[in-house]
Design a protein that fits this description.
The complex is a heterodimer of chains A (about 120) and B (about 110).
Chain A: E1 5-7, E2 10-13, E3 19-24, E4 31-37, E5 43-50, E6 53-56, E7 65-69, E8 75-79, E9 88-95, E10 107-108, E11 112-116
Parallel strand pairs in A: 2-11
Antiparallel strand pairs in A: 1-3, 3-8, 4-5, 4-9, 5-6, 7-8, 9-10, 9-11
Chain B: E1 3-6, E2 11-14, E3 19-21, E4 23-26, E5 32-38, E6 44-50, E7 56-59, E8 62-65, E9 75-77, E10 86-93, E11 102-104, E12 108-113
Parallel strand pairs in B: 2-12
Antiparallel strand pairs in B: 1-4, 3-9, 5-6, 5-10, 7-8, 8-9, 10-11, 10-12
Classes of the chains: A mainly beta (about 120), B mainly beta (about 110).
């Protein structure tokens, strides 16, 4: 079936503008994660959704970052008043911990490359 | 807190050489361990996984054994190919965390020369 999809694939914005990044997880996957991969660094956890709730937002770097999930499906990551240090690849992943992959394997989307000028 | 330490890259090998990429971890509880691979221009793909001590994950000729006594999950391949050139990420997921979020290593870039 279809994998995790993200849009846009690339986004260039000016400092101070708001951006929205979208993630469509695999159908039926209850868990959804956002990660950030800055150039030359590893992947950092941002936020975790179980259904439409976000019990773990501990990785969001500042209050400029927010995310929501609706219909236990699509998620949107919003960055307000973007800064140059927000430039990174933003990855979305989904999993179904109680399904066929009990070890919580996460399936990743292709990412959105955000460049803040 | 939980953490993953991965050997620095880049690693450059000749085709058919033996590969080891070291990964050690610090975790509370009993994490599941993963290796993900990112080929040029592609997204992260699961390479192999292990969910308990002494488990060996294997795929595409790659192997890694979950060693609780040394808190390690080193990735090995007996004979690398040019097509193995990619960035490899070690990760853990702590089932007791309630979120199963991944903690990743910094990634190791592998370049295999023909």
């Amino acid at each position: 079936g279809a994998g995790v999809s993200q849009s846009p694939s690339n986004k260039v914005t000016e400092k101070g503008k708001d951006v929205e990044l979208r993630c469509d997880p695999i159908s039926g996957h209850t868990a959804l994660y956002w990660y950030r991969q800055r150039l030359g660094q590893g992947l950092e956890f941002l936020i975790y959704f179980q259904g439409n709730s976000a019990p773990d937002k501990s990785g969001l770097p500042s209050d400029r970052f927010s995310a929501e999930r609706t219909g236990e499906s699509v998620s949107t990551l919003t960055i307000q008043r973007t800064q140059q240090e927000d430039s990174a690849v933003y990855l979305c992943a989904s999993s179904s911990p109680t399904g066929e992959h009990p070890y919580n394997e996460q399936f990743f989307g292709p990412g959105t490359r955000l460049t803040v000028l | 807190g939980n953490s993953v330490t991965q050997m620095e890259g880049p690693v450059t090998l000749s085709e058919e050489a033996f590969l080891t990429i070291n990964c050690t971890y610090t975790a509370t509880g009993y994490p599941s361990l993963f290796w993900y691979v990112q080929y040029p221009g592609e997204g992260l793909q699961l390479l192999l996984k292990a969910t308990k001590a002494d488990d060996k994950g294997s795929n595409k000729g790659f192997e890694a054994t979950y060693r609780k006594e040394t808190t390690s999950f080193h990735l090995e391949k007996g004979s690398v190919q040019v097509s193995d050139s990619a960035v490899y990420f070690c990760a853990l997921s702590d089932p007791t965390s309630g979120t199963y979020k991944y903690i990743f290593g910094t990634g190791t870039r592998l370049k295999v020369l023909a």
